[in-house]
Amino acid sequence: MIAVELRKLFRRPRTWITIALLNSLPVLVAVLLKLTDLAPRPGEGPAFLSAVLTNGTLFPLAALAIVLPLFLPIAVAVVAGDAVAGEAQGGTLRYLLARPAGRTRLLVAKLVAVIAFVLVTVVIVAAVGYLVGTTLFEVQSVGATTALSGSTLTPEQVAWRTVLSIGYVTISMLGVAAFALFFSTLTDSPQLATLGALAVLIGSSLLFTLDAASDIAPYLPTRYWLSFVDFFRDPILWRDVVRGLGLQAVYVVVLLGAAWANFTTKDIAS
Amino acid sequence: MVRRGWRWAVVALGLAVLVALPALVAALPADDRDLSAAELRAQVVASEDVAFSGYAISTGGLVLPVSDALTGVADLLSDQTALRAWYRDADDWRVDVVTATGETGTHRDASGTWTWDYADQRASRGDDPPLALPSAPDLLPSALGRRLLSEATDAELTRIAPARVAGVDAVGLRYTPADAAASVSAVDVWVDPGTGLPLRVVVRSADTDVPALDTRFLDLDLSAPAASTTDFSPPADSDITRDQDLRDLDLGRQERADLPSALAGLARRTFDGVPDQVGAYGSGITVLAVSALPGRAAGSLRDQLSRTPGAVVDDLGVRIAAGPLSLMVAGTSTRDGGSGTYLLAGTVTLDALAAAARQIQEAGR
Amino acid sequence: MTGSDTVIATHGLRKAYGSLRAVDGIDLDVRAGDVYGFLGANGSGKTTTVRMLLGLVLPTAGTVEVLGRPIPKAAREVLPQVGALIEHPAAYGHLSAAANLSLFDAAGPGGVRRTRRSRIAEVLEQVGLGGVGKRPVRGFSLGMRQRLGLAGALLRRPALLVLDEPTNGLDPQGIHEIRTLLLDLNRTGTTVFLSSHLLAEIEQLATRVGVLDRGRMVLQDDLATLTAPTGATVVDTPQAERARAVLGDRVLSADGDRLVVRGAEPAEVNAVLVGAGVPVSGLTLQRPTLEEVVLAAATGSGDRVAA
Membrane-spanning regions, if any (chain A) (predicted)? Predict the structure, then answer.
């Protein structure tokens, strides 16, 4: 079942168009930086972008920071919102369930496919970022990447921490994916499910900036998104990373549970 | 016929457990210890050699009227500051102020401090001046608690209920300053009974329920951090500068150093290296600093203060209060060879400030 | 009650949406080897019933058994042996017919991977899509999609076919092909449950008929029984008046030159009339048409809203 969902997802032209669009923004940013030489100050603009002009190997991280706030979650919401509602709208859902695919299995397979999509997307963004970064900008051959804490990281450390960041960003998207998947079981319109997940996302981002909402801030799905930056402190600051992972896990468990409770008792009328 | 409700019940129950769990853990009662307030204070004051590493959050409840000057201090006292600390001993520690996309680290060694600012890619060296503006490391509960309790008398201390801080059952101590001039109504300190390390400090002022400052550890590890963690050597391509401190400020040409030996009931005290133009008064949490101001600086600061809501303007000068902090520009006119303009700042009431300004005027006459 | 040869059995099957009873106490009885015609007007509850048989819609009350096992509880064991066409066919537009079938086959249990390729080629040939190649389904006509849907239903050589309006969108030639295909399959042992609102289609294919009217089953019997001779003979004669006089009260009804006469032996009726010198131009044993049977049982069109 999972293999079927993966085949469906990655044989679909739209999946690759989405990934290509997602990559266009970091590439555009890189080209503009190269042409103008105007990097933002450190601590301003997307994380790590300031350091890119002198060290192109950091561009994968800058690319992730560029797509993280909006592009990536939109892509995730589109794919996950389409998961069940898209099949319902296309009429294939009734055939899958009469096959029978098993409702719980289908739901889990959809989630796994969405996770795979996020992982593939993030890896491609990082890989394209690396290619673009090392082509357009200087590459420092000796280990001279400065961590946020002012210490020096070896290229091996940078590579390892970049891998950790990719994993963390992937997991950070699971909350959005779970919301979209849950909404996707509520409606037969994939657009509605996607919009619902985006509404949650925007609401969460807005509340996060509001002092009055500081009591609920630790529970917002977007709260720990930027914590991948903590991998580049020295020593690594695990606190928010661990909390981010736990928070995403809670969202996935609760929303997948709700999706399951709804979907397994739902009359398929589409 | 399919029973549908139970699935939702399972989900709702799971959600309820997950939501309630943090609150339940927080509600677990903390154990108290049979320690007197004086014993506890002695432990705190002696805790300077306790090594630890941890993560602390400091929340300032003050709205300071300073807009452009002193923004660093204003941020510390009005915002939430996340601090990572590694402490080996009094001359070997590191405190990082952590922001979403950067950090500022202070590394102490035997001869001074390195301050690393990621945003500016700048490392600066300083040598532990005797008088300095508050900086982030001062907000660490361990440092702040020790400092505030160091001059408290036993009569000013009472025990309060224990609390769980960073997973430790911390015993409570309240410091209520006895000075009439004090604007701080109480300082609550929760202390690790094993080591005497202050884990949480809450500074309260009389006029509001919102603490002026609430700083506490969220994570604490009492094992000594590695020396390599607190060490610092500036990265190759960074700017290296020297710290400025208050001694470098231009305090005006006036040579008048005849500030009174007591102001508003607070005795003057002296610190090595502090220039004579600056007078420090009071003890413990009730302190007042007085300094002559050069004319031009005085004018702009007076304008700025008088535009602040709640500012009191009278013939003594302009004074404002922000929580327990108060600030005054005193002396409205400069006579020939007469008294200049003074800046008064401290944790005293506005009435105490006015009294102090009057005393300075009289002394100058 | 559920014998070994019973393929579909429902008992008191009911589906209510709020106060509306879409399906109200249906007892289906489909036996092995049947071509069961499930007849009903639009909105009579056919589709809801079909969906309940396949575990897509959960009944409000009553039980469903397919191939002797309860649905939806044993759906995972039962449904792999059931091929279904539910309302319209559906497929992924960007994939070819074969790729669609391959995904569909892999999506559930019972689709043996080793034989998948050959099974797909075989069913595509069977439904007349053998030459469709790698063209994406997006460009298929309605009829081609219908054939593809049928191919999906046939993919695992099911013991039971549940087909909802299978000839929808096909041209007369296509309808004939599909009909022949279904009859062939039935001859080799496949039970066919055919849901349709087309009387003619059911009449030509079904061996057993169930008629649904506003959620209730109004009729369920063998087609042969339903359309059995009525015991009357239909006589066509140019001299209807004389024939009536000869036959007297044996005439049940008259309509122009056509008389309906009591008596199940047309030869005997003929002998009486010819013996009396009345010319006879036609003689048949009277059988009711399915349409007549259905109209007599049902109350009216389901989408007609009474004032």
Answer: 16-36, 56-85, 106-132, 158-183, 195-221, 241-263
- Sort out which chain C residues have CB atoms less than 8 A from A1's CB and list them: 107-108
Domain covering C6-226 in this structure, CATH number? 3.40.50.300
CATH 3.30.70 describes domain C232-286: yes
Domain with CATH 3.30.70 in chain C: 232-286
Q: pLDDT at position A261, please?
A: 94
Is the minimum CB–CB distance between C138 and chain A shorter than 8 Å?
Answer: no
Write the pLDDT tens digit of every residue in B213-260: 999 999 999 999 999 999 998 887 777 888 765 555 555 545 455 788
Nearest to B118 among A148, A226, A254 (CB): A148
**What amino acid occupies position A250?**
V
The yes/no answer to whether this complex scores an ipTM above 0.90 is: no
* B contact chains, 3+ CB pairs < 8 A: A, C
Q: For residue B66, is pLDDT > 80?
A: no
Buried b (16+ CB within 10 A) or exposed e, A174-203: bbbbbbbbbbbbbbbbbeebbbbbbebbee
Domain range summary for chain A, segments of one domain joined by +: 2-263
Cβ distance C61 to B1 less than 8 Å, yes or no, reads yes
Percent of chain A's residues with pLDDT above 70: 97
Q: For C142-197, write each residue's pLDDT tens digit.
A: 889 999 999 999 999 999 999 988 888 889 998 999 899 999 999 999 999 999 98
pLDDT mean over C130-144: 90
A153, closest residue in chain B (CA to CA): B235
Pick from A11, A91, A268: CB nearest C90? A91
Reference B2, options A107, C75, C50, C21; nearest CA is C75
**C294 pLDDT above the threshold of 60:** yes
Band (B22; pLDDT cuts 50, 70, 90)? confident
d(CA B182, CA B194): 32
Looking at chain B, which residues constitute the CATH 2.50.20.10 domain(s)?
26-242
List the single residue in A with minimal CA-CA distance to B84. Answer: A237
Residue type, A142: V
When the candidates are 3.30.70, 3.40.1000, 3.30.10, 2.60.420, the CATH number that belongs to B249-364 is 3.40.1000
Q: What's the alpha-carbon Rg for chain B, to the nearest Å?
A: 24
List of chain A residues whose C-beta atoms are within 8 Å of the C-beta of residue C92: 8, 12, 90, 92
Q: Contact, A149 vs A155, CB < 8 A?
A: no
Summarised one tens digit per residue, pLDDT across range C223-232 is 999 988 888 8
Rounded to the nearest angstrom, the minimum Cα separation between A263 and chain C is 11
Give one DSSP letter per residue of C46-63, joined into a string. HHHHHHHHTTSS--SEEE
Fold of B26-242: outer membrane lipoprotein receptor (LolB), chain A (2.50.20)
Contacting A residues, span 96-125, partner chain B, CB-CB under 8 Å: none
Residues A233, B18: C-beta atoms closer than 8 Å = no
Contacts of C166 (CB under 8 A, 6+ apart): C85, C146, C150, C178, C182, C194, C196
Q: Report the gap between the CA of C107 and the closest CA in chain A (Å).
A: 5
Q: Does A91 touch chain C (CB under 8 A)?
A: yes
Chain A adjacent subunits, 3+ CB pairs under 8 A = B, C
Residue spans in chain C of domains classed CATH 3.40.50.300: 6-226
Check whether B96 has a pLDDT greater than 80: yes
Q: How far is C91 from chain B (nearest CA, A)?
A: 30
Query: Residue C86 and residue A94: Cβ atoms within 8 Å?
Result: yes
Cα separation, B107 vs A33, whole angstroms: 34
Q: What is the nearest CA distance from A248 to chain C, expressed in angstroms?
A: 29
- Inform me whether the C-beta atom of residue B1 falls under 8 Å from chain C C-beta atoms: yes
**3-state DSSP helix/strand/coil % of chain B, to nearest 5:** 25, 35, 40
The answer to which of B95-99, B246-250, B253-257, C284-288 has the lowest mean pLDDT is B253-257
What integer is the mean pLDDT of B152-176?
93
For the ranges A151-160, A210-219, B246-255, the lowest mean pLDDT is seen at B246-255
Please give the interface size between A and C, counted as residue pairs whose CB atoms are below 8 Å apart.
75
